[in-house]
Design brief:
mainly alpha; two-stranded antiparallel ribbon; 13 helices; 2 strands
Length: about 300
């Protein structure tokens, strides 16, 4: 069981589920003009439907992790031999079978939900996601920045897919969903590039054309620092909006739980030189991603207090 949980990146799946839950219950609100406050939305998708939406997303994400490891066995044998699962603990045939089942279930559930809310076109979101994850594993990740951008876009899609099923939310709050999607995109892009630094040995052996291989370590670090600076500046812009000007708790949380750690990350990126250091950077970036997601709860809690 532990092997399977490692294969499907169970902690990452928990973050995906948490992101979707917080997006629905902390950002999707409507404004009560009589009480002059935000109140819970009368959701288009009922609770059972939302659970299935989360499950379908997790199925497809888990399938993506499996197929990525399936095609990455040679690279992982060099970069992370101690963490190699497919071909060691689980056969390649079983891994492919699991990928097929999980992807199929994710697509079927997606179309069923889209049919239930009379927007069948939404069902194609999961089909496109499955296709992108397949081609990411087979070719995109080996090409210059394409794989990084694909994963970043799919990360940004997680809060957006919750929002598209709820057209009745207070319009201004859609901007916050887009803001969180932008955060997810940039922080995921940063982490993917850091992971490319960590995995350079195996990537070179497999003739990958990742950013550090093509442009060098120093240029890659510069790109990472610029992306972090963009995230910090974007957060500053958002918390300076008049809509948030009086929400001191949310502002303080954003500064000390997200922006300050990002500043620390810049320092660590400059100092990092070893594979172990890059691995630590990747973990720190994931923690910052989590604190960013949790800010949805802080935003909701402080909205009417």
């Amino acid at each position: 069981m532990l092997t399977i949980l490692r294969l499907i990146r169970f902690p990452n799946l928990l973050i995906i589920a948490l992101t979707m839950y917080l997006t629905r219950y902390c950002l999707l609100l409507e404004f009560d003009s009589q009480a002059l406050k935000f109140v819970p939305l009368a959701f288009t998708l009922n609770t059972i439907g939302f659970i299935f939406l989360v499950v379908s997303t997790l199925f497809i994400a888990a399938a993506g992790y499996i197929i990525n490891d399936y095609f990455d066995t040679k690279i992982d044998a060099i970069n992370k031999p101690e963490r190699l699962i497919i071909g060691v603990s689980i056969s390649r045939r079983k891994a492919m079978f699991a990928h097929t089942i999980l992807s199929s279930l994710g697509v079927i559930i997606g179309f069923w939900l889209a049919y239930e809310i009379h927007h069948i076109i939404f069902g194609w979101i999961n089909v496109i996601t499955v296709g992108l994850l397949w081609f990411y594993s087979t070719s995109f990740k080996k090409n210059f920045l394409i794989g990084n951008l694909v994963i970043a876009l799919l990360s940004a899609l997680i809060p957006i897919v919750v929002g598209v099923f709820e057209p009745n939310a207070y319009k201004e709050l859609y901007y916050f969903i887009i803001a969180y999607a932008g955060f997810a995109f940039l922080i995921s892009l940063i982490r993917e590039i850091i992971k490319d630094l960590e995995d350079m040995d195996g990537d070179i052996a497999e003739n990958c054309r990742t950013l550090p291989i093509v442009s060098g370590v120093n240029t890659t670090k510069t790109v990472i620092i610029l992306l972090i600076a963009i995230v910090i500046a974007s957060i500053s812009y958002v918390i300076a909006m008049p809509f948030l000007s009086g929400n001191k708790i949310f502002i303080l949380y954003s500064v000390f739980a997200v922006q300050v750690p990002l500043l620390g990350l810049i320092y660590l990126v400059v100092k990092a030189k070893s594979k172990q250091a890059y691995s630590i950077l990747s973990t720190i970036t994931k923690i910052i991603m989590l604190t960013g997601v949790l800010s949805m709860f802080v935003f909701n809690y402080t909205l009417n207090h």
